[in-house]
Design goal:
By secondary structure, this protein is of the alpha/beta class. About 45% of the residues lie in helices and about 15% in strands. The radius of gyration is 22 Å and the shape is globular.
Length: about 290
Amino acid sequence: MNATPFKCCSLAVLLIGWLTTMGGALANERWVILGGDIAETIAALDADIEVVARDDTVTHPPEMAALPSVGYLRQLSAESVLSVAPNRVLAASQSGPKEVLEQLEAVGVTVDVIDAPASLSSIAEKVRTVAQHTQRQQEGDALAASLTATLERLAALPPLPDTRAMFILHHSGLTPRVAGNDTAAHIALEAIGIDNAFDNMAGYQNVAAEALAKEAPTLVIMSQRGLDALGGESALWQLPGMRLTPAGREQRLIVIDDQSLLGFGPRTPDQLFTLRQNIEALLGIEQVSR
């Protein structure tokens, strides 16, 4: 579909303004960061760069989350990004649309995309790549080694016995939306040695009361944001079918920070250990993850 005359005019005005602002000032790099994991990695590396804006997925660290937003990671516009007059963009692989990134490059903005899969094994390489772009290679190597060592310790822990977790992403009316296989939540559950009660389904799906009773999760894992949106813990246990599960009868709930746990950034390995320890404590299992 062709752009409307208004949008073309608006973009042209922004391009002229951007060129005027950036001309002769390329030595003073102004960065836009796209992706919560990329922002967290920059913070962990203590990179000495001037970040002027971020996208909506950046919620940590607080000082970066307080910067102007250029929109949602997957639905960017060239106008929004250029409005903060950047000359560098460091982006997660999900950033787009692709045409927007190409528009930015066409007017001279350096766009670097960190192409890393959503996996724990990719975290170390992601750190090294961000470190290379921000000239923090030594710090990147040290951080990558530390994160890899933490994940190796986690992998060496024995599975938790008879533990079936239900990870609720959020709810839709009276039906919880639960993580199945091929999700970041499923990867996290596997990493800490517990079973995903809904690993027989793909992606995130709404789950009815009958399925809750059938799969019988031992505990519920949910983000604080999701719990607040639901109306609090009491509302969780009132969901249809929840009382028919061991988790509902015993009211076993672990509240997590979904960005730090599932973002596959530098905070994720420690968050996985914390989750494992919290589950051990909740179930009264002798703690082995110290």
